Amino acid sequence: MIKKIYPQCHPYWVVDDKKIKNTNVKAIAYISTGHLLPCCWCDFEKAHVVNQYAEYGLFDKDLKVENNESVIDILMSPEWKSFHKMLLEEPEKAPGPCKHHCSFIPNNQDESNYFD
Ligand code: SF4
Question: Could you report the per-residue pLDDT of 10-34, keeping only the tens digit for each?
Fold first, then answer.
């Protein structure tokens, strides 16, 4: 069972009670349905994977780009906040691609990236 996710879509992680900068934050993805997703790794065709993200409301009609004034409105939506909270606090519930890609700290990180 997975114990922790180090989301590459986050600007930092907490490791041993210290914050470490993610110097290579993964970009959000704009997908063919007209939605944004936290990264391109979430853009899967298989229905059971799509459903893992849909469960958090990321595919809700209200979150389509065309139905929002700005990208920030989507990123700050309750659905997106809930998704990111889950990644950090309940990693065992994370969708498969998140567990696959983000269950370890990328090896381009070192002590120099720790915040003071
Ligand atoms: S796979 Fe999941 S945890 Fe990793 S960057 Fe993408 S959305 Fe974030």
Answer: 999 888 888 889 999 999 999 999 9
For residue range 76-93, list pLDDT tens digits in order.
999 999 999 999 999 999
CA distances in angstroms from 87 to 2, 61, 62, 65, 96, listed in the order given: 11, 23, 22, 23, 12
Tell me which of 36, 59, 87, 104 to substitute to probe ligand 1's pocket, judged by most ligand atoms within 8 Å of the beta carbon: 87
- pLDDT at residue 63 in the model: 98
Residue ranges of E strands in the chain: 12-15, 18-21, 29-30, 36-37
- Output the pLDDT for position 114: 52
For the Cβ of 42 lying below 6 angstroms from any atom of ligand 1, the answer is yes
Q: Is the CB of 101 under 6 A from ligand 1?
A: yes
